[in-house]
Design brief:
By secondary structure, the protein is α/β, with parallel strands linked by helices. Helices cover 40% and strands 14% of the residues. The chain contains 14 helices and twelve strands. The chain has helices spanning 35-47, 68-81, 100-109, 121-124, 137-149, 168-175, 199-216, 224-233, 280-285, 287-298, 302-305, 310-313, 329-351, 358-366, and strands spanning 5-8, 53-58, 86-93, 112-116, 154-160, 182-187, 222-223, 250-253, 258-260, 271-274, 321-322, 325-326. The strands form two sheets. The protein has a ten-stranded mixed β-sheet with strand order 7-6-5-4-3-2-1-8-9-10. Helix 6 crosses helix 7, helix 7 packs parallel to helix 13 (329-351) and helix 8 crosses helix 13. The termini are far apart.
Length: 367
């Protein structure tokens, strides 16, 4: 049986911020996930995984709005249904409500926390504001400081938009000072939204960050896209679903138990069913779930099929496509060609059981 990943949204689209680019705030609001749905989900998610490792991902909206006691129940239920499996929890938050009690909970239970931050204050606060339009950067930094004080494992998720994409060096040098080596860059692609990043802006941003990283931080800072790209060069599947050969089996669970094909496809046409009526394992095996995954390759344009970097992007996320082609195509193509010589060297170093960090010395010696 093929396992599945589920992004659970216990607070549905409810959020305490009003980020000006958020696509999820427009979703119909639901009440918080009730105890029956929570127990059903946890039981079924554990049962749906064929191996000994089970991943839970909690997102939103904003999951801290559920309150910490909700997630204490999560731990109780995971212990009840765990069957001796190794269970890990990831929690994506804007950080605004993170206090010492939350930090103690995360640290004591080994949860990985993702903090959303879009750069230094002037860039972050351009879009990520409260319901009253007030800045939030200072609150996010306070949350990061608490996580560090409590020794909570965390990473940073940055939405790359039309504004902060213009400052790749400033962005990267700032983010790597915040206490974690793990960075994710997510391109904002919302058609007809002026905050969205263009393909050229995306490529310029990635190249700007990569040029610093490859000379200063290989093996020290872990940028998800760079690690995934090096993995593909080394013969492994992409780590990121947007660049994987196939979609599918990465679901979004709404607070009422409705299961959707993907976080970017929470629309009626992509609703697989409800876990109260059909078990998650059955929905995962359904013809609709399999077809959704296969459609990513079926719908590729002839241009994509013939592209020399297809193996690295696989046409990007279908949600990013316009007239069959990703709006980020030019940027990805530019980045993959730009990084190729260095990726090739790092791949060869790994193949000879040497560290890819040696590339930094080679580049700096020739500078």
């Amino acid at each position: 049986m093929t396992g599945c990943h589920v992004m659970a949204k216990p607070a549905s689209s409810r959020c305490n911020l009003n980020c000006r680019y958020c696509f999820y705030l427009d979703k119909p609001r639901q009440t918080q996930m009730d105890d029956a749905t929570l127990e059903t989900f946890i039981h079924q998610q554990i049962a749906a995984q064929p191996g000994d490792d089970v991943q839970f991902a909690w997102q939103g909206g904003e999951p801290t709005l559920c309150g910490i006691d909700f997630f204490r129940r999560v731990m109780t239920l995971q212990q009840r249904y765990g069957q001796g499996k190794r269970i890990q929890n990831a929690f994506q938050t804007n950080g605004v409500l993170i206090n010492d009690e939350w930090c103690r909970f995360f640290q004591e239970n080994g949860w990985l926390v993702g903090i959303s931050i879009d750069g230094p204050a002037e860039l972050h606060d351009a879009y990520r504001v409260t319901r009253r339009g007030h800045p939030t950067h200072h609150k996010v930094i306070a949350a990061i400081e608490r996580l560090l004080a409590h020794q909570v494992s965390f990473n940073l998720l940055t939405v790359v938009n039309a504004q902060n994409s213009q400052q790749p060096a400033q962005m990267y040098r700032y983010l790597r000072t915040l206490g974690t080596p793990f960075l994710q860059f997510i391109p904002l692609v919302e058609h007809d939204n002026p905050a969205s990043v263009s393909g050229n802006q995306w490529g310029t941003f990635l190249k700007g960050v990569f040029d610093i990283w490859v000379r200063e931080d290989v093996g020290r800072i872990f940028v998800q896209l760079f690690d995934s790209t090096l993995g593909v060069w080394s013969g492994y599947p992409a780590q990121m679903c947007s660049l994987a050969e196939h979609c599918g089996h990465a679901f979004a669970l709404e607070a009422n138990g409705d299961l959707y094909q993907c976080d970017h496809y929470v629309y009626p046409d992509y609703r697989l069913g409800n876990i109260h009526q059909t078990p998650l394992s059955a929905l995962n095996r359904s013809a609709a779930a399999r077809q959704f995954g296969e459609d990513k390759q079926v719908s590729l344009t002839d241009e994509c099929r013939q592209c020399p970097v297809r193996r690295l992007c696989n046409g990007d996320c279908p949600r990013h496509r316009l007239n069959g082609k990703s709006v980020l195509c030019a940027g990805y193509f530019d980045f993959f060609c730009h990084s190729a010589p260095h990726m090739r060297v790092m791949r060869d170093l790994i193949g000879h059981h040497r560290s890819p960090m040696e590339l930094m010395a080679m580049l700096n010696a020739s500078a």
